[in-house]
Amino acid sequence: MTGTKSWDIHISITEHDHTVTAEARLLGREPGGGMVGEGTARCNPGDENVPAIGDELSVARALNRLADQLIDCTIKDIETHTHEKVHGLESR
Hints:
This protein is of the alpha+beta class and 92 residues long. It has 1 helix and 3 strands. A 3-stranded antiparallel sheet has the order 1-2-3.
């Protein structure tokens, strides 16, 4: 099989008080459609509020959760096709 596929990730970041929430939505994945990972970061009230840090941390956590979902899906797909337990691809 040759060709090019494109999957896109749309990231939304919302800040409320001292909490930043990010949503990483995978688009274009077929079959099974998209997946969503969510991540949160909180600023300690005693720390200086640096919004970029909260954005980075919440996005990193959302992408990490999205990656974990993709690995889990991959493991299930392999096991479905091979009828054998997969070893060595487990999420962190």
